[in-house]
Amino acid sequence: MTGIRRTAWSVAAMVAAMTVCPLHAAIVTLQDRNAEAAFDLSSSAGMTTWKVDGTDYLSRQWFWYRVGSSGGEQSVDTINPAPLYALTNTNTDPGKDTLLVRYDNSDLRMDLRFQLSGASAGSGRANLVALVEITNRGTQTKNLDFFQYVDADLQNGTKLGLDAAEIFGGNRAVQNGTFGPTSSLAVSATGTPSHWQVSPGLALLNSLQDGLPTTLNDIAGPLPAGDMTWGLQWSFSLAPGKSQQISIVESITPFTAPVPEPATAVLLAMGALALAARRPRRRRD
Fold this sequence. Notes:
Number of helices: 4
Shape: globular
Low-confidence stretches: 1-9, 281-285
Mean pLDDT: 87
Strand content: over 45%
Oligomer: single chain
Structural class: mainly beta
Largest sheet: 9 strands, antiparallel
Distance between the termini: 34 Å
């Protein structure tokens, strides 16, 4: 992890040193070997796709923030909906595997670096490293809350609500499908976030978008299998000109869940179909 931290310290310098362009396309894509990731950088949809061997395991992953203890959270793209960004290839494999993006205004700057690492075809494995650097460009100390939100679908990429999720030690989240051969998502963050939450359905996302201040409830799970989402929250103060760095390491791997008894399997399938019928279509804000 030491090397990742060293990289995180220089994210802002890397963005400044590279040739960057204003955002014109709505979606930018990373590719590396058997993996693909897509980002909508101009809206709170954020990271909308993470495919491994052709299966998409992600509905949404993105970041929100709040300055002070009142008012609601805002997605990072609201800092500047036309950010500068750069796509690069850091290895000999075809495709751009690294994204640098800068959201800034006269008061606040957020530099994000995403690096996608695929594996051999058919392995079911891929990694993603996200490095975040937040800088106070204002003249007053800011009390900030920064949130990571993840809505993944590990039951073979389906929206059937058969996932389980749990947060360990406040800084490591594990989510996987619960029926038969499926996949697992493991996420580790530097340091220990101030708060965390595992939550079913849209409750967590709604709390980040309701215009009211959010403090995650520290429910770490595991909860009964369903359409699981989860989030991490960092709270800190930044003096003028100072920066805060956060690094997040994510991996998707194959997973074999215990096979339930036939009667239990029927009940799970019926419940999943009912949930799928009620779940609203994903909205890209």
